[in-house]
Structure formats: structure tokens, C-alpha cells
Amino acid sequence: MANLVLVRHGESTSNLANIFTGWLDVSLSPKGEEEAHTVAEKLRGYHFDAAYSSDLIRAERTLDIIVSRPAWATIPVHHVAALRERMYGDLQGLNKAETALKYGQAQVDIWRRSYAVPPPGGESLQQTQARVVTFFEAEIAPKLRAGQDILIVAHGNTLRALRMYLERLTPEQVEGLEIVTGGVCVYHFDAQLKILELRTL
């Protein structure tokens, strides 16, 4: 039996400004810092054998705040590029509302929510899922099968891609999957990684 806890980073300065962020390396907003502390409080009492985040500042900082609690101060922490947000290509740095005015809301919704269609010059969710799942199966799954409890702090699309894989969601189902900043999802697995319980905190 093992737990996998997935956390979306706290609100970033780009989230606050309604900007397509992708691989832009931006900090947490003051609200995002508070959200990270709230996540740490929600996870009080959980045990972790290892923790992972993407190598982008907003995810690193969220994880650093969480593991600053004495109970987790000594767990191994890893920051990895495979857990980065979806690369938004030509949209990175653009205001979402202004982009919708230019291209139409329907087109922007396809770029943001669809599984297979990438934004111009960027990654589709399908491509993001390929790198995230490759990392998960190589690094995380063996630890879970061995009974270790793992914490992952990443990004909205990274976690959508991973949740789609773990929960066997369809492309249509994942289009409607929203993960708020500071959102927490807890899986309890058996030794074959069958989901025994799934909770959001």
C-alpha cells in the first residue's frame, strides 16, 4: 500500500496577470505563498519517503515551503525537468484575454484544453503526457510498488496529463478537468498500483 500526493503549485505572478506561462520561470504571488502554506497544513500527518517537483521556480518554491515543516525536513527532494508545465510555444507571455480577442475564444479553448492539438510552436497535452508518464513509470511507480509514499508538486497541465493516465480518463473527460492552484489530490494504491481510494483536499 502506498500514497501518491499530487499538488499544483500556488498561484504564480503569471496566473495573477492572466498570462500563458508554460516554461517561463516566474515566482509565486503573495497569494501563492499563502496557498503553499495552506497545502502544508492540509498534509499535516502525512508521511513521505521522497518529494519531487518540476525545476521551475513556482513549483520548487511551493515544494520548499511544504517540506520546511519539521516532519518532512529530511526527506529527499528532487527538482526535475520532466515535470515542467506544458510548453506553450508562441503563446508564452501573452495575455489570455487579449489572445482570445485576436484568435477567438473557441480557438484558445482548443489550444488550452484539448488533448491532441498543440498551441503554435508548443506541446499538446498528449506530448506533455508522454514525457510525464515516461518519468513516472521510470522513477515514481517502482517506489510506489515498493510501498513508499511520494509527494509531487507540479503544474496544471502536468497534473492533468498524469491524472488522465492514472485514472484512465478519455480525451473528452480530461478537457473538463480543472486543477486549481494549491489543489491537492491523494491516491491510495495497492501493490499493483490499482487505485483503492482517491481524495481531493
Automatic annotation (TrEMBL):
Active site feature: 9 (tele-phosphohistidine intermediate), 85 (proton donor/acceptor)
Class of this enzyme: isomerase
Catalytic activity: (2R)-2-phosphoglycerate = (2R)-3-phosphoglycerate
Keyword terms, alphabetized: Gluconeogenesis, Glycolysis, Isomerase
UniProt-listed Enzyme Commission number(s): 5.4.2.11
Positions bound to substrate: 8-15, 21-22, 58, 85-88, 96, 112-113, 156-157
Sites marked Transition state stabilizer: 155
InterPro entries: His_Pase_superF_clade-1, His_PPase_superfam, PG/BPGM_mutase_AS, Phosphogly_mut1
GO molecular function: phosphoglycerate mutase activity
Pfam families: His_Phos_1
Pathway(s) per entry: Carbohydrate degradation; glycolysis; pyruvate from D-glyceraldehyde 3-phosphate: step 3/5
SUPFAM superfamilies, per database record: Phosphoglycerate mutase-like
Entries under Gene3D superfamilies matching the protein: Phosphoglycerate mutase-like (3.40.50.1240)
Coiled coil: none
Family recorded in the similarity comment: Belongs to the phosphoglycerate mutase family. BPG-dependent PGAM subfamily.
Purpose: Catalyzes the interconversion of 2-phosphoglycerate and 3-phosphoglycerate.
Record-linked PANTHER family: PHOSPHOGLYCERATE MUTASE
Protein name: 2,3-bisphosphoglycerate-dependent phosphoglycerate mutase
Lineage, uppermost ranks: Bacteria, Pseudomonadati, Bacteroidota, Cytophagia, Cytophagales
